[in-house]
Amino acid sequence: MAKPRATLGIDLHIEPAGPGLRRGLTDALREAVRTGRLAPGTRLPSSRSLAADLGIARNTVAESYADLVAEGWLTARQGSGTRVADRPVPPPPDRRSPHHREPGRAAHNLVPGTPDLASFPRAEWLKATRRALTAAPNDALGYGDPRGRIELRTALADYLSRARGVRADPDRVLVCPGFAHGLKLLAEVLHTRGLRTLAVESYGLDVHWNLVERAGLRTVPLPFDAHGTLPGALDSPRERAAEGSLSDDLAAARAVLLTPAHQFPMGVALHPARRAAVVDWARRTGGLILEDDYDGEFRYDRQPVGALQNLDPDHVVYLGTASKSLAPGLRLAWMVLPPSLGPDVMRHAGSSATGVLEQLTLAEFLTSGAYDRHVRAARLRYRRRRDDLVAALAEHAPDVRATGIAAGLHAVLQLPPGTEQPVVRAANWQGVAVHGLSRYRHPAAEAQPPDALVVGYGTPPDHAWTGTLDALCRALP
Ligand SMILES: Cc1ncc(COP(=O)(O)O)c(C=O)c1O
Asked: pTM, whole model, 2 decimals?
């Protein structure tokens, strides 16, 4: 067996096995294409380069490529080399073998949650790091304040007040390594205060519900309609609600988790009357609102909806993150706590888990204006992608409508009834990783979700965007 080695052009790990080099190599390449390890459109190394890596004759590789071109697995074109062939949309599931295997790692990622990491502002970030480290006092490198560095808390308070209308005082800002981490902290503190139920939205992320449940709280979904979440159910009088019913559980909830600016993943902004109603509920009952402002920076068609926290900072915890605006790998997020909750959460937080260099760099990034510049440029780029998506749908899939597109880095594509799972599979077949909406529905939610795809158009790097969009369109009805 030849020793596996990295090739020059792309990382191609291939282990030709079995009798006969040509046959072994052909089988190994065919298997890599068939399982999706080599995605449609992938350019293979030249026969010279692969032959050199595998320590075999160039002709053997050329013949193996020619066999696979003849079989339709590869294409060879003058000037563009040898590539993995595009595959047709698979037949509907009932006509396929039950042993059909899905392709492996997808070439195109449209799963929401990650921004375009290729456009992370590396040069600006490096400059800010250098400036921040040069200016930092020695004690910045110590254990420090569990709330996070004062430079960052001050910069965040200014920025959030200016850009999101948050009423923030640096003393009530807590820096944490991600929204999820902040939510876990809050759930644990609320549990120690006797809370047993957290109302959530009908649609959201199961990782968030799961970590709340692991802290000992039940998550109970609020109803949802075209104007967003219906917080009125928090008020349903207990005596009118059937014992053990959803409305009974909701009436018992003293806290609610919401995405008011841009519901995740449906994309609607919480209706103004409902914003007022939920704040009114919190005031009357001493309830608490956890406001997840995960992509508050990205609104395209008009002024962003300001933070709900502004309406009542005593009853709202504001949570924000750099995971969408910069990169999740920085592990930088923040919350602004009401006075009644601040000391407990800060005590529970222990020492901050985000490195001081990242904190000081973000502080410098914010105060120097680099953050605003980056967000404005990113907003333009993502907006163009959103427009490309809408235009591609109009041209190639006129029966598919994009909703929730006024903001954020994802859109919901409304599909004809009964087609969600076949379309997800067809997309996978085209090398596109994408999720159906049903995956984001809370298991106890009353509403049945419409058939839809949640398309995270922010994720692909610029150079891959057109190819990703083409591959998605090939899978749409
Ligand atoms: C709804 C929602 N909230 C919050 C976040 C941010 O998560 P974190 O800060 O934990 O990376 C995300 C990221 O995908 C999200 O989709």
From this structure: 0.79
